[in-house]
Specification:
Elements (H helix, E strand, L loop, with lengths): L1 H39 L3 E4 L6 H15 L3 H17 L7 H22 L5 H22 L5 E6 L2 H4 L2 E5 L18 E8 L1
């Protein structure tokens, strides 16, 4: 009986250690996956030289600068100008094969620009929409091209340490997600260059 009890205790201890190790390994594999995904990003992407998205890029960068400066009012104003720039973008001048995808990107991006423009005084909310908007702008630039080189910068601390990216005309880190609270958080993830 005593021997059976000892074997049972040892089995439970062994099972508990195994379960704990399995949980620990699972956490590491998620982190390893995130790191692997980040390392799979090409360090440079070449895009066509084009002025078709210049107004969109200009207004996006003005919005980014307003968020860097913690200026919710200016971010709202820049969001409105970006919203208007999307409305003026001529999709019909783009190759037919890309028009549907561009239309979807612009529709989504306009929605985020509109939310930013309507939420003066709620910079946290503006920043949430800016993060999603940044992905739309990058997707748009990859398709349409750009009139300048851009940098995709990644901040690992944003969104409860899930991270977030934005585009900048400079490789200098000025974080729009945290502004003055964590201005230098981030690193260049990718350079978007003109062919």
């Amino acid at each position: 009986m005593k021997k059976t009890m000892i074997m049972l205790v040892l089995a439970l201890v062994g099972w508990g250690a195994s379960a704990q190790h399995g949980h620990s390994t699972e956490g590491h594999s998620n982190m390893d996956t995130k790191m692997a995904n980040k390392s799979m990003v090409k360090s440079t992407v070449e895009v066509e030289q084009s002025k078709s998205a210049t107004a969109i890029i200009d207004n996006y960068l003005a919005l980014k600068d307003a968020l860097v400066a913690d200026n919710s009012k200016k971010a709202a104003s820049s969001g409105k100008m970006l919203f208007d720039a999307f409305a003026k973008f001529d999709i019909s001048a783009q190759p037919k094969s890309q028009q549907k995808e561009l239309g979807e990107i612009i529709e989504d991006a306009r929605e985020h620009a509109e939310h930013i423009s309507e939420n003066d005084g709620s910079i946290g909310h503006q920043r949430e929409h800016f993060e999603i908007l940044s992905t739309d702008i990058k997707d748009l630039v990859v398709i349409t091209g750009a009139d300048r080189n851009l940098y995709q910068i990644f901040c690992p601390m944003y969104n409860n340490k899930e991270g977030g990216s934005w585009l900048s005309a400079s490789s200098e880190i000025k974080n729009p997600f945290f502004g003055s609270k964590m201005l230098k958080c981030g690193s260049v993830q990718q350079k978007i260059t003109i062919k």
